[in-house]
Fold this protein.
Amino acid sequence: MDFISILSIFVMACFVGYYVVWSVTPALHTPLMAVTNAISSVIIVGALIAAAAGSQADGGQTAKWLGLVGVVLASVNIFGGFAVTERMLAMYKKKERK
Amino acid sequence: MRRALIGASALLFSTPAMAASGEAVNPWVATAYLVAGVLFILALRGLSSPETSRAGNRYGMVGMLIAVVTTLLTHSIASLPEIGVAILIGGSIGFIMARKIAMTDMPQLVAGFHSLVGMAAVLVGIAAYLNPGAFGILDAAGEILVVSRVELGLGVAIGAITFSGSVIAFLKLNGNMSGAPIMLPGRHVLNLGVLVAIIGLTAYFAIAPTVGTGPIFWTIVGLSFAIGFLLIIPIGGADMPVVVSMLNSYSGWAAAAMGFTLGNTAMIITGALVGSSGAILSYIMCKAMNRSFISVIAGGFGAESGPSDGAERIDRPYKRGSAEDAAYMMKQAESVIIIPGYGMAVAQAQHALREMGDMLKEEGVSVKYAIHPVAGRMPGHMNVLLAEANVPYDEVFELEDINSEFAQADVAFIIGANDVVNPAAKTDKTSPIYGMPVFDVEKAKTVFFIKRSMGGVGYAGVDNEVFYMDQTMMLLSDAKKMCEEIVKAL
């Protein structure tokens, strides 16, 4: 994709983010931080590309190992972030109506 | 939504989607990443209410699965077993941490997780620099594209700042490092200098010939680690909600920068979402403290609690109450508003507090919880703790929704909060917390104030008139012990 299309997606997504986040109830701000943390680990895509490429070029071998470490770190976040969000959200209960 | 997706894929078919290197991108792959991005938007959208939040979290998981599987399917994988092991190791560590962590320690956990995102971004950036061919960012002459170099420079810089800043935030929140601000002489000049150097080097990195850019690139990485560290050490414990939100935002921008390098819509959408989310949370926190973002970042707040006003404080008379007094008064009351603060989290008093609330409700007392936006060490921290203690979320109210009710309330029960109930914020123009929105507890008929001792003051280091009011009874004890004693007395 050319730079301008990417930039357009980025700018639009910032606006979407702005409106979506303002509609999040303040009671759920901690889960919000946990889940945004989990999804920002989508950076794992970059780490996978580096790890997958292997040693086709100079520096590829180092890049592969850096990628693998990146995959480990991002996985901690993905699993940890979604799991802790799930755990928190399960605690939010409504009053039992009698 | 389906129609929108078909429309989007049609768009991708009609425009020749080309990778930066000139290699054709399969439109279905681009669509898969787009779907992942949309699922991430829905994940945040779900958090608008507790009822839809769990479904939202599932959308997020599916989105992540799509992004990972798509990446694995579309790249020739030379090292699948290693990748599998890496995911397994990281995944189990993360999963176990998420299971074991105490809810009071959430701020540390989140800060720690931010540091990992930052480090992952730095590693991806370095890998892309070392093996640009794999990332499709080479031009015809075999040089890294100029635009990609800017993105790489910014990506590793933001990633490194996120990493070192989050590590410091983690150490401060976890108590491994004092929460007191550490002030270096001339830090503003130093920080500004380092920032200018990073920007200048990134610009030079973009235009210099690829051969020999190594030292520039590594200097950017090194300086960025340093600036993250320098930026966070002067910031005190009470400002941590802003810092944690700000680092949340940075981790998003780092992911977005890498998304630009890879031309990956899932990463760009996510980065933008997380970036704006963190920025909005920082804004909300600053506003709730009536402080400008700049003054928080400049740091040093909470350092100047002078001992002089300490002497003055001891001389002033106050009424001390017992658990029995509190139990008796609250049983007679019609309505009780409970204001929890960070002290409740430290004492792990949320369960005892809920038990007290339940017993009062059985006596026919209306019990409500009032939460200030900056209570605790991260946005929404108190809400999670009360939810953990099984307090229904519809008994928990935000500042602006409940503040008018104090005038009708019989009892305001303050547990582990201080600055957020200090009337000086409304009356004393010289107070460091002047202008901060606070609870009008002085309007309640009776105020119970649980505090460990009369010695300490809130993080802002200001004395609180509420201690000395006629209708105030100080309950000097550990918050958890006091709640348990009240429960016994009820």
Observations:
- Chain B has a mean pLDDT of 83.
